Amino acid sequence: MNRQEKVIWAAGFFDGEGCITGGKNSDGHYNLTLSIAQKVEEPLLVYVELFGYPLVVQRRNTKEEHFQFRCGGQRMLPVLVALEPYLTFKRPQALLAIEFLQLTDGTRGMLVGPEVRRRRQEIYEELKALKRPWELARRSS
Asked: What is the pTM of this model?
């Protein structure tokens, strides 16, 4: 496969197996992480090749290894930008995450002003809601 074909494949795999999660640290700042976990490493090696981040190897309550491609903060921006045109189910999440990561007021890292912090919180809440579409359907009926 050429690079574009690998990106298209990676987007489809991420649509089914990937995850964009967020959290709030003790200082009240929101952050995002992109991850894909598998019991075998081969499918994740495409992401290593495309984006250069290493796999994380974990053992969970068993002797069995689990592999994870994971990146957070600004490191996930080029991954999302590459995958987004080919995503279907996770496209709304990816677009929100891209907006979150591109929000800045000229400062570095988490040292952003209240306007940016407020919008990042809104995006975080929107991402949480997108992960539970059945709850959105209940609220609108």
From this structure: 0.86
Contact between 86 and 8 (Cβ < 8 Å):
yes
What pLDDT tens digit does each residue of the chain (141 aa) get? Answer: 999 999 999 999 999 999 999 988 888 788 999 999 999 999 999 999 999 999 999 877 777 889 999 999 889 999 999 999 999 999 999 999 999 999 875 555 556 788 888 999 999 999 999 987 655 555 555
Burial class (CB in 10 A: 0-12, 13-18, 19+), 108: exposed
The CA–CA distances, whole Å, from 60 to 21, 65, 71, 100 equal 19, 7, 20, 31
Strands of the chain (E only): list them.
18-24, 30-38, 55-59, 65-72
**Mapping DSSP to helix (H, G, I), strand (E, B) and coil, where does residue 92 land?**
helix
Enumerate the domain spans of the chain.
3-134
Work out the number of other CB atoms within 10 angstroms of the CB of residue 34: 26
Beta-carbon-side half-sphere exposure of residue 42 (alpha carbons within 13 Å): 1
Q: Looking at domain 3-134, which CATH architecture does it have?
A: Roll (3.10)
